[in-house]
Specification:
Blueprint lengths: L4 H8 L7 E4 L3 H4 L4 H18 L6 E5 L10 H17 L19 H4 L2 H9 L11 E2 L5 E4 L3 E7 L7 E8 L4 E7 L5 E8 L11 E9 L3 E7 L3 E10 L1
Helix pairs in contact: 3-4
Length: 239
């Protein structure tokens, strides 16, 4: 997942790279047992590489999947792919990575392709200027509090003028009440959108709720989430 040796020193310090990519074959991914462990390793690898490049170039996975244990039961495989994809995007990776099928037959089945529908709508909807979105990790700046054991990762456009944030929150049980808070946003009026991250047939919009708020020094919002995971966007609508 990360280069080592002489070659890594050359490539990681090369000034003329447009983007950088590696394969994501951690033990948690190639022989998966827990989708949340997959998410943790994805975020760790993206944070490490974005640190090396000072968030200056796009970084992404170019191959991943259960190479040591396939095919997987479809429901578990879907949960693993969903955790990988949302963690990759929300933590500051470029897109969702590139899953190698590891199915039988060796093609991306419908149940994996369905994972992409809410992600596609999330990306294509209004609010985030992706060409101005550096993907800096904000795990220490955007705080999600819950009495449940949750996984959370987030990223934004930049540190100096933070006006756009995306994030993903997941648990092994229904999340219920959560508080989202931060003092990192620039001043202005913002919209927080809560998104479903799970495919549903015949759904026009995956937005579950939206909240408008003003940010000066900090903000804190209490939410009730009646599912085990969700994505969110925060973006400024008025300076």
């Amino acid at each position: 997942p990360a280069l080592t040796g002489i070659l890594s020193g050359k490539l990681y310090r090369f000034d003329h790279i447009d983007f950088f990519t590696t394969h994501f074959y951690f033990d948690t991914i190639k022989d998966p047992k827990d989708p949340m462990k997959i998410a943790e390793d994805v975020v760790m690898n993206i944070n490490y590489h974005n640190y090396l490049f000072n968030d200056s170039i796009p970084f992404m996975d170019s191959e991943s999947g259960p190479i040591d244990r396939w095919p997987q039961p479809s429901r578990f495989d879907t949960a693993c792919y969903k955790a990988f994809s949302w963690a990759h995007l929300a933590s500051g990776g470029t897109g969702i990575g590139m899953r190698w099928p590891y199915t039988s037959p060796h093609l991306m089945p419908d149940y994996l392709l369905q994972v992409l529908k809410p992600i596609s709508q999330f990306i294509e909807s209004e609010g985030i200027d992706w060409l101005d979105f550096s993907g800096i990790n904000l795990d220490n700046e955007i705080i999600i509090s819950s009495d449940k054991d949750i996984f959370h990762t987030s990223s934004g456009n930049n540190f100096e003028d933070l006006t756009s944030v995306i994030g993903w929150v997941a648990s092994k049980e229904t999340i219920g009440n959560v508080v989202i808070e931060s003092s990192a946003l620039d001043e202005g009026t913002y919209l927080l959108e809560i998104w479903s991250d799970s495919y549903e047939r015949d759904v026009d919009s995956y937005i579950l709720a939206s909240y408008e708020f003003d940010s000066k020094d900090d903000f804190s919002l209490k939410l009730s989430i009646d599912q085990s995971s969700f994505a969110y966007k925060i973006y400024r609508i008025e300076s």
